[in-house]
Amino acid sequence: MFWKKKRNQRAEPDTPAKTIGGLFHQLKSNPDFIHFNHRSDTFTCWISFFHTLIDINFVHRDVLSFLYDRRVSSLNDAVRVLPMEKVIRTKDLTEIQAKLLDGYIIVQEKESSSECLLIPATKNHGRQVTEAETETSILGSHESLVESIEININLIRKRIPIPQLAIEEMRVGKISNTRVCLLSIDGVTNKENLNTIRQRIQSLEVTNLLDVAQLAILINDNGHSLFPQFLDTERPDRIASAIYEGKIAILVDGAPAALLLPTTIVEFFSAFDDYLVSWPIASAYRLLRLFAIAFSVTSSSFYVAILTFHYQLIPKELMSTLYTSRNSVPYDPIIEVLLLEIMIELLREAGARLPTKVGQTIGIVGGIVIGTASVQAGITSNVLLIIVAMSALAAFITPNYRMATTIRFIRFPFILSAQVLGLLGIALCYMLFVCHLIKLTSLGRPYIEPIFPLRVSDLKDAYIRLPYNNQTMRPLFLRTRDPGRARPKRVQAKKGKHKSDIDE
Amino acid sequence: MRKKHNSTQILIPIFCSLFFLSGCVPTYIFDDIMIIEGIGYDYIGNGKIIGTITTPNFVQGTGSGGSQSTGVPANGPMVRTLSAKTYDGKSLIDKFQAEGQMGLQGGKTRLMIYNKAMAKHGLLRQLSFRNRDPDLPRDMNLAVVEGNCREILTSNDYQAQMSVTQYIQNLIQDNSRQNYPETDLAKFLYAYYGAYMDPFMPLIRKQGDHLELRGLAIFKKDRYVMSIPNKKVFLFKMLFQKFNQGVYDMQYAHGKHIALRNVHTAISYYVRNGNSATPDIYAKVKVIGQVRQATPKAISKRTSQSVAKLFEKSLTYNAKALVHQFQKKGVDPLQLGDQVRSFTYHFDGASWPDRYPNAHFHCQVSVNIQQTGISN
User: Fold this and answer.
1) Based on the domain organization, do A308 and A441 belong to the same domain?
2) How distant is the alpha carbon of residue B118 from its chain centre?
3) Would you call B166 an interface residue with chain A, using a CB distance cutoff of 8 Å?
4) Which segments cross the bilayer (chain A) (predicted)?
5) What is the tally of structural domains in chain A?
């Protein structure tokens, strides 16, 4: 239809400037746009820039002082004199506009002349590299990504000092033109994966892109799924190790996190610390996390199912405890469970949105005061309070925040199905989720890979982490071009003869 | 042409029916039902029985949690016991429903007890009714009572601070970890329905303010025929299953006792001439034990070999006597018939009941005393 068509065409900003004069006219009303005529004895020029985007000290010290030099009498002279390695000379209006908004200075001979000198003077004003906040760790590097993509690339390049580290830059967003970088290692990363992700990013039709999580949602395989299909991390050491493994990392300018892809579900439950402690400990903690998640998802639904339908399953020693705590509660188990679960959900949301100092108070008020009060008022039972609090705790064991949110969310379908059909309902709900997970892919690769399809060699670094000398191969899942990580013969070579030191 | 459905077209009706039909599923919310813990049957003749049920009174006797901390007056089940006359076979639960203020549910029944008259009358109807009900647990304990079930279940003068049912169940279960063979509904029904074997139950009675195990009640099919006393239960269990932690007390001279606690007992059977008129059943028992109680100077490390010989003699003699007793009554709680069957090609099952009393039971017990305790 005609109006629709028109609306679609207007995705580009209004009335793009046709000439450089028009561009300046458009920008003149902005208070931070500076456009002035510089005259010296030998050279007259127009200088324009956004003073909010450029490093003003740098301009005064290293640009203007050279332009005011006596030797300069034309743009050619200026290029020769300026102490910069990359001064662009162009007539292309789109480039001029883009560079101006990236923090370049424009120098023209006449105000209306289309030939411009573009001098980079970008101000890198951003957060310092700080400690990781969402993925804190006790061992290992404490650096975390920041909002500036240059610093982020710097952090990663420092960890991968090889020429094969390939960085591919793209622009996403019709208006925002956000910089997006793909990082991979030539000769290791699977080409097919790289092509898929490149094609997905290039064919994106969005006006603006502000965060890497937004990109993840835009390019994932199944947009309706509750499960995150790409791993987001803010730890440069984790990114580097993933790239070494043969994964692709995506950085977005302005986002303090990177996407690692393709990913399997087990990676959401492994923390980077796992690689820094000895393998039995790492394996034990991974299994602990696994059980915690199973507990978190099913505990309150089991409570509902057993208390509503299957009183036969209550252990006889537990009966009197359960009875006395349930006794004064006027509601059915389902109402009681929903009440408490929603209360904990409210607490979490309030704690996350409020300023840090108030947030802690809310935790105490909610957790202790409301919890005890609701039990004493006879609205919920003691036992349930323990179950719900423990399952909330268990959900946060997940190292990845987005996965933790998913885990907390999928509890509700389980609770409702437990109320509808009891244990059978839980089983049906479980089946539904398993079917969904089996179908799910990440960049076209199976999402629950080491289990289905079963690839035994990848199980070495899934639920348990075997020692490094057993992990001589890169994950089969990634289909890397160089599957070997280390020479097995050398890694598993026998140690030299032990010289006993104890016997005197 | 077949129309292709997409997944939403299939899923939406499923979810709708689940949602709207979920009200049709009966719920048994744990604290809105009366849970039956124990059932007792007293036979009063003429095809009538008195049935008694107990429900747990959780509020009584639970110290922690519960009523004090919530500040709300606790209201447990009001009725603790119910009893009524009924013709046997009819479900007691249905009979009592009119008297319970909440729905009565039998899914956590732990105990069923029968008085001797009931057991002699035959449990056929009770058993087939219990077996048919899938709601009942199969690991509940059964027992025959000397005296009156109703009295046992309703009296208030026990020393134990727990419910009677729990008391009886603990009594049976703890003892079956020692001298008594393991019994529950599943094992009883196995022996009842199985060929060439007969079931048994523990026998209890109320003695003043406590309960005690009297021995084992032996059934022929569903009818009680005999009992074996408490002191012979060790022999029974020794011939019946592998076990440990039982105690056998031997009087080797007048007023002189040695008690053997077994740490391991294994039984193996061997059968010859299984189809003949007089089959030979060989039982080989190996007992490893410790002496923990003995008359002073009855045993030391030096004399332990000779004491073991005494034990062997006593055990062999008494085991043989026990089996003879069973053979005389024509009951087979030790499942010897099943052993014979398993050792015999083309076993002649039809004539077995006639041949069983004539079978020769050979028993060989070897006792190994490993510790005699601190004697110096």
Assistant:
1) yes
2) 17
3) yes
4) 287-309, 383-401, 413-433
5) 4
